Every structure is written in structure tokens, then in C-alpha cells.
Amino acid sequence: MSLLVVGLSHRSAPVSVLERAALAADARTKLLQDTLAAEPATEAAVLATCNRIELYADVDKFHAGVAELSTLLARHSGVGLDELTPYLYVHYEDRAVHHLFSVACGLDSMVVGEGQILGQIKDALAVGQELHTAGRLLNDLFQQALRVGKRAHSETGIDRAGQSLVTFGLEQLADGADVDAWAAGKRALVIGAGSMSSLAAATLARAGVGEIVVANRTRARADRLVEILGQAGVPAARAVEMTGVADELTRADVVVSCTGATGLVLTAEAVAAALGEDFDSAARAPEAPATLSDELDQHAAWVENGSATSAAQDRAVRRVPARPAATGPVRLHLLDLAMPRDIDGAAHRVAGVRLVDIESLAEASADAPMAADVDQVRTIVADEVAAFGAAQRAAHITPTVVALRTMAADVVAGEIARLDGRLPDLDEKQRAEITQTVRRVVDKLLHAPTVRVKQLASEPGGAGYADALRELFDLDPQTVAAVSRADLNDPNRGRS
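^ that's the sequence the OP posted. Answer follows.
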């Protein structure tokens, strides 16, 4: 196993960089195809969410793999390699497994314990399977990650450690008030009809909003979401075209936006116009960029501390400025869950507006308390990583053991054929008894060595036992490779 992951997330990079590096669906497809075409990689999968972009690959050379995967991420994200490199992290073999399992359990999420990441991992695997870039290793890895994540949520109280980004975002909009009391009777506009927007609409419905309007680029998807809301008992739900957003904005109390748009969906000027306020675009105050030395210091701190980075270090890496409070009573609440962002960050300067986006959520979540259950989940992850490594190492020797038993069966068949030539008068019963006796002898001689070699191969450092077995029994490498290919091409492998 030579698993390598190269990526960046909310822990290693500021939101401004994550936003620019976000990958559209077609870019992910091209990234996977180009990764597989690269010499060091034989399998590839991309996990891309609103706060992480990770490229997983099975590589035969570590340093060449890191260089190639980093270059490909830079090329397809549109962020220059020199600029992107300080924010990248690298995990290899067991550390890469540990990282994905931690991600699947929600330990590495912006909101610890959130469960949406499981759906995103499932989608990443489905894309890899559809494009045939996920082979035996990544199929096994991602399937196991899904099982580990489900186990963490079913066996521990990790769900109490955090919520979904939608719930957390609404809590930030409510600014300390009870979300249900705050949402009661409000008019909500949901822009987008994907999984996150659908979750937002359902969450708002449960919170008791008076009306939900769904706007989406494809009207049919907006209609479908409204239909689902109606089936769930939300009568005051309707769909509009994207061209109707400006009018709906004048009537909305809450706006949640999460689309796949590459540009802004709501500008600060549009928000101001909806509220009848003036907005001076010249008043925009761009955030001062960090110096190169600051970036390098932050990256060094991340590399040194890994995923155990403290909340204070997390805040230093993100460098999130505090949002100034909107002047006067809040008339419009904006929740932007898109990456890159849908809503102009300058909208929070409009009087009467409260804006919560991925950037401000990152700042708020850095101080969020973590439940004691997190330690239990970490134990589960450690145990599952060890079990996965043992299973992969044992699987590595299986083709060699199968080839050995195939060779032994061929030897038995040859000797029985030779016996037939020397003793042609044997009746069928005698021949069958002799054949069975020889097979039992061979099986007994091979049983203990093959069982023991599988046990030894499953332990750390046991990869060499397959080579030793091939050398000792002079096994044909082509036979072993054929067994491996047959296993890899099994259509049921890696699917549940």
C-alpha cells in the first residue's frame, strides 16, 4: 500500500485561498483523469467540500507523487503552485488512512462532529468508481471510511460535539437567541437546490419559518425541492426563477445561499437596494494580506502540530477579521455556505444586515467546545486504522498464497496423471482414494505455513513475506499478477 494524500483545508489555509482553489465538477473530473495519467499514480479520488480539497492517490514513489499531486492541484485549482504550496499538507500510508478516517468522523470538520462529510465522501467514491479512477485500494479505503464514520456516530455522542454547518450558521445568525424562537414566522429565501441548500430548507422548516422560497438556476430542481418540502408538511413553500431573486430579497428576512456559481450571486449593492439603503462601493476595505514570512510561520506551525493544532493556532492560520456589527436593528439575515462565496463579503457593511459566511463560521467554530466523546472517537479511529492496515497487508500476500496453492494443485494433478500411466489397472475407487490422500498431505503441509505467513504479513513491516514466499517456492510472477488482476476486476469489490 502506497497511499498518498495532498490537500488543503480550513485548518491549513485561509478561506480566501480555499475560495480561489475551489474545484467545479468538471475540474474534478479532469483532475482525476490527469492524476491517473501521471506516472506515479495508479488510482485517484478527490474529496472536495466547502472547506477542503484533497487528492488521494495510490503511488509508487513518495517524492515524485507529492510533486506531481501538488502540481496537479495547483494547475486545476487555478492557484499558482508557489502560492498554494505553503498551505498544502501531505499524509502517507497509515497517516493518510488516519486522516481520512478522522475526516469521516467529523473530527477534522469546521464544526466538530457534523455528519454531512459522510455524504461527501460517498460522492467522492461514486465519482471515482464512475470514472474508473478508484481501484482496489481507494475502494477499500473510502468504503471503510464510511463504515468508521457511521460507527463513530452510532457508538459515541460525537453528534453532541457539533452540528451541521447549516445549524451552526443559523445559530450564529440568531446571535444567542433560541433558533426556533428567532426563526418563527420569518420569510426565508433559499438560493440553490443542491444537498446543502436542501438541508438548509429542511432545517428552516423545522425551525418554524413562515415561508420558504427556493430559487435555482434550473427551475425543475427548485420545483422538486419545493415538492419535497410540501411532502414534509411545509405548505408555504414555492419556487422562483433566479431572475426573481431581487424581488424576493425585498420581502425576505433570512437568505441562505449555497450554489455552484463561480461568481457572486448577491452583490452588496443588490442587498442594499433590497433594503432601500445606499451602499458606497468606494467604501470597501480590503483585508490586508499577510506577509510571506507570516504565511511561512503559520504553515510551519501547522506542519509541526498536524491535526492537533490548537484553536489559537487555527485562528492564526485563518487570520479572520472580526465582522463589524450591522448598524441598527437587523432586518436581513444572510447565511452564505458556498465556496467560492455567493454573497459579497461587503454586504455586512449595509445598515440592517447581518452576514454569516464560511469565513466567520471558521472564526466562531475555533472557540466551540468539544465533547468528551471526541476522545472515544479518536480511539475508534486508531483501532480502525490498525485494522485497515493489517487487512491491506494481509490482502497483499493473498495472491501469492493463492498462486502457491494453485501450483501445489498442479503438482498433485501431474503426479496423479503420472500414476495413471504407471498403474493403468487402478479402478476408479482406488484412484479416487489415492488422489484424496495426496491432496490431504499437500494441504496439511501447506496449512500451517500459509496461515502463519498471512499473520506475519498483516503486521507492520510484513510486506516482505510475499516476496520471500515467491522466492522459496519459485512461483511464477505472472501467475501472482493474474490473481491480483482477477481480484481487482471483481465487479462486486468495493461496493456495498
